[in-house]
Design a protein that fits this description.
This protein has 692 residues and is an alpha/beta fold. The chain has 19 helices and 24 strands. Helix 2 packs across helix 3 and helix 9 crosses helix 11.
Length: 692
C-alpha cells in the first residue's frame, strides 16, 4: 500500500517527519553544543548541493562508527542522502574512509564471525538451520537479488567442499559451524579472561596496544595455552608476558605465565601478491615487488601450509568431528622454493566456475542452486571471467568512472543503485548528472556505467511476483537488494535498535539524555560491565568530569607496530600527547608540553600536554564541557614509546556490529606524570576506589 502524495499520517514520510521534529537547531545547540548558525550552515550546504543537476557525498570514518549508536549514526546519513536524492548518482553516496587498504575486503570476504562471504548470514544454532532448505527459505526473498540466495549459498558450499558436497548431504551445510553466542572479537577476549579459550592466532593486529581495555586483554593472554603472533617486528602482543605494564606493576609474573608464544615473521604488502578492496568496492591487484627476507612468509603461505598439516592429521583420524576438515578442498598450485601458493588460483576459486568443466563464470547471474556451480564469494563473480584475465590487475581506464582499472563488485558496476540516476521514466535527471538511462530504440539501459538493474527491463515494467527475482520488481524501483526495490527510510527488519535513528548518550556521559530522560543509553547496547571492565557513573560522574575521545594521526598506523619502528615517521610524531583547550589548561594550571595524567575506571596513563584551540569546549545546558583528545599509536616497544591509550577504553558492544565505543567516554585529567611500578597501580585504585 502506497501514498504517492506523502500526506497520509501513517506513510513513512510523515512518520519520519514526526520522529525527527523534536531535533530542532535549538535542541542541537542546547544539548550537543553545536551553535545554531553552524548547524544551519551545514544543512543549507547539503541541500544547496543536491538536486537534479547537483549531488553531495558524505564521507565518514570511525569517528562515526565507534559509538554505542554507530550503526544508527550511519543510518542517519543514509536517510539524509535518500531524501536529498544523492544515492545511485555520480558524486553522491556515502563513503567510509578506512584505516587500512582493504577493510572493505575484510567484510566482503569476512573476518567476522556472523557472516559468510558476500554478506550472507552464518547459520545460528536453532531450528531454522536444521536443514539447508529451511536456512535458504529464511534468508531468501521472492523479489530482488536475494531471491538468488540459494544459488549463492550452494555455490559457496561447492567452492569449499567440492565433490564431497552433494545434494544428498545438503551440499555439506551441516559441516558449517553454528553461532551459539557472542563469538565476536570483544566477546572472545572476555571468554579468554575467564579461561574459556586455549589458543589464539594474531595476524596483522596488536591487541596488547590497539584494542579496548588493553589491561584486560593483556591479562587474558596469560590464560592461554598457546599464542601465535605473525608480524613484521616484535610487537607488544608477543612480549606481554615479559615487559608489559602488568609485569612492571606486579599484576603478572613471567615465571607463572604458562602461555607458549610463537612469534613468526610475516611478509609485508610489497613482498606478496594479492588484492586490496577499497571503500568504493574496487578490487585492485598488487604484484609482489621483492621476496620477503629470511623466514618471513605471506599469510597465504602460512594458512595454506598450516591447513595442509591439519588436513593430514584429520585424514589419519577419520572420525565424525573431522568430517568437515576432510571434505574441505585445499589444493593450490605452489610457486618457487618456498612453496608460495598462487594467489591468482585463490582469486579464480573466489570468482567461481562451472563444476563440470571448471570454466570460469563471468557474472553471478550464472550461479545455480543445484550444485553445478562453485563460487567463493558471489559478489566477486566476474573478476576473473576467463583464463588468463584478471580484471583486478587491469590498468587501462577508459572513462571518468575508471572502467578498465580494477574490478568493482558487483558486475564491475562503479556506482551502486545507478538506476536511481534516471527519472522514473528512464530519462536522466539532468545532462550534468546523467549516468545510465533507458534507450527506447534499443529497449535496454545504456550509459556510462554498467547498470546493476536488469538491462532489458523497461521503466514502465510492473513487477510480476509469480516470476520472482528482479522481474518481480517494478521498472522504476532501483534498489534491487531490497525485496520491494525501494530505498528504506524506515527499516522494518535487520536492525536490533529500531527502525529509525534516535539520540542516546554514550555509555559514559557527563550529560543527561534530553530526548529520552528515562533511557540514557541505547537499550540493546552491551556494556559488558564487570569488575575488570568498570564504568563511570552516568550521567555526570564527579570523578570523571571531562569527555575523552581517541583518534589516529597521519604519521602513524593504528597501534603503531608498522610506524613506531620507522625513524622518519617516529621523528614526525615522537611522543604521546593529550590534546586540550586553552581554557581547560588554564583551569587546571597546565602548561604546554607539561606531563599530565589521564584516568578512567579502566586505567591511567600519562602524556605530554598539547594545548590547542582545536579541542573546543562545549556549552551544553549552560555548562562548559571540556574535551580531551588522545591518539592511540604508542606502546612500550619501538623507536618511540608511550603509554597505552586503549587501557582507558571499555570493552563494549554496539548491538548490530558489536563495535566498541571509543569516541565518547569520560575521564579525569590532572597535572603531573603517573607513578611507576606498583605505585601506579595503587594510584589508579585510589582514583577509582568508588567504582572498585
Amino acid at each position: 500500500m502506497t501514498d504517492e502524495t506523502l500526506q497520509h499520517p501513517r506513510c513513512i514520510f510523515q512518520v519520519l517527519r514526526r520522529h525527527f521534529a523534536r531535533y530542532t537547531p535549538e535542541m542541537v545547540e542546547q544539548y550537543c553544543g553545536v551553535p545554531q548558525h553552524v548547524f544551519n550552515e551545514v544543512a543549507e550546504t547539503m541541500v544547496n548541493a543536491s538536486g537534479p543537476d547537483k549531488t553531495a557525498c558524505i564521507c565518514y570514518a570511525v569517528g562515526w562508527t565507534q559509538h554505542s549508536t554507530g550503526v544508527q549514526i550511519i543510518r542517519s546519513a543514509a536517510i539524509l542522502q535518500l531524501l536529498l536524492g544523492n544515492i545511485g548518482r555520480p558524486g553522491g553516496g556515502i563513503l567510509a574512509l578506512r584505516g587500512h587498504a582493504s577493510i572493505q575486503g575484510s567484510t566482503d570476504i569476512p573476518t567476522l564471525y556472523d557472516i559468510l562471504p558476500g554478506y550472507m548470514p552464518m547459520p545460528f544454532f536453532g531450528d531454522d538451520s536444521s536443514s539447508l532448505e529451511k536456512f535458504i527459505k529464511k534468508h531468501s526473498a521472492n523479489a530482488g537479488l536475494w531471491s538468488k540466495f540459494g544459488s549463492f549459498m550452494v555455490s559457496l558450499l561447492k567452492s569449499w567442499y567440492g565433490d564431497a558436497a552433494t545434494n544428498e548431504n545438503e551440499f555439506g551445510f551441516h559441516w558449517l559451524p553454528r553461532v551459539t553466542g557472542d563469538h565476536s572479537e570483544l566477546g572472545y577476549w572476555l571468554d579468554m579472561q575467564d579461561g574459556k579459550v586455549e589458543g589464539l592466532f594474531v595476524m596483522g593486529q596488536n591487541p596488547a596496544v590497539g584494542a579496548p581495555n588493553g589491561r584486560l586483554q593483556r591479562k587474558a593472554m596469560s590464560n592461554l595455552k598457546w599464542l601465535v603472533v605473525r608480524d613484521l617486528v616484535e610487537i607488544e602482543t608477543s612480549t606481554f608476558w615479559l615487559d608489559s605494564p602488568e609485569v612492571e606493576r606486579g599484576e603478572l609474573d613471567p615465571e607463572r605465565i604458562a602461555t607458549e608464544v610463537f612469534l613468526m615473521p610475516a611478509a609485508g604488502s610489497v613482498e606478496k601478491s594479492g588484492t586490496f578492496t577499497n571503500t568504493q568496492r574496487l578490487l585492485q591487484w598488487h604484484n609482489k615487488a621483492i621476496d620477503p627476507p629470511g623466514d618471513a612468509r605471506s599469510e597465504t603461505w602460512f594458512i595454506y601450509h598450516l591447513g595442509k598439516l591439519l588436513k593430514a592429521k584429520a585424514a589419519a583420524e577419520p572420525v565424525p568431528r573431522n568430517a568437515a576438515l576432510n571434505a574441505l578442498t585445499w589444493e593450490l598450485p605452489i610457486e618457487g622454493e618456498k612453496g608460495e601458493p598462487d594467489p591468482e588460483a585463490v582469486l579464480a576459486e573466489i570468482n567461481g566456475w562451472r563444476v563440470a568443466d571448471h570454466s570460469l563464470l563471468s557474472t553471478f547471474d550464472d550461479l545455480k542452486a543445484d550444485g553445478s556451480t562453485a563460487s567463493g564469494c558471489w559478489i566477486y563473480c566476474g573478476v576473473m571471467p576467463e583464463p588468463g584475465r584478471n580484471i583486478a590487475n587491469e590498468r587501462d581506464p577508459k572513462d571518468r568512472l575508471g572502467h578498465g582499472w580494477g574490478f568493482a563488485w558487483p558486475r564491475n558496476t562503479r556506482i551502486l543503485y545507478n538506476r536511481a540516476s534516471a527519472r522514473p521514466d528512464g530519462a536522466p535527471w539532468s545532462e550534468e548528472k546523467k549516468l545510465v538511462w533507458w534507450d527506447a530504440n534499443k529497449r535496454e539501459w545504456t550509459g556510462e556505467d554498467i547498470t546493476d538493474f536488469m538491462k532489458n527491463m523497461p521503466p514502465d515494467h510492473r513487477g510480476d511476483p509469480a516470476k520472482g527475482g528482479m522481474e518481480a520488481l517494478d521498472g522504476d524501483k532501483p534498489f534491487g537488494m531490497h525485496p520491494d526495490g525501494r530505498g528504506w527510510l524506515y527499516v522494518s527488519s535487520g536492525l536490533k535498535d529500531g527502525p529509525l535513528p534516535a539520540h542516546f548518550e554514550p555509555l559514559e556521559s557527563p550529560v543527561r539524555n534530553p530526548i529520552y530522560p528515562d533511557q540514557q543509553t541505547n537499550p540493546p547496547a552491551s556494556k559488558k560491565e564487570r569488575p575488570d571492565n568498570l564504568y563511570a557513573k552516568s550521567p555526570n560522574d564527579p570523578l570523571f568530569p571531562f569527555v575523552l575521545t581517541t583518534y589516529r594521526l597521519t604519521e602513524h598506523h593504528t597501534a603503531g607496530g608498522m610506524s613506531r619502528v620507522l625513524s622518519h615517521l617516529a621523528e614526525l610524531q615522537p611522543e604521546l600527547f593529550a590534546e586540550m583547550s586553552p581554557q581547560l589548561a588554564e583551569q587546571l594550571g597546565i602548561s604546554q608540553n607539561e606531563w599530565v595524567t589521564i584516568s578512567t575506571p579502566r586505567g591511567l596513563i600519562s602524556a605530554k600536554a598539547l594545548v590547542t584551540a582545536r579541542m573546543l569546549p562545549l556549552d551544553i545546558e549552560g555548562r562548559t564541557i571540556h574535551q580531551v583528545g588522545l591518539p592511540y599509536h604508542w606502546g612500550w616497544k619501538g623507536t618511540v614509546t608511550g603509554d597505552v591509550v586503549n587501557d582507558l577504553i571499555a570493552i563494549s558492544q554496539e548491538p548490530n556490529v558489536r563495535i566498541m565505543e571509543s569516541k565518547g567516554l569520560v575521564c579525569n585529567l590532572v597535572r603531573g606524570q603517573r607513578a611507576d611500578g606498583q605505585a601506579a597501580l595503587a594510584e589508579w585504585k585510589n582514583m577509582v576506589k568508588e567504582q572498585l
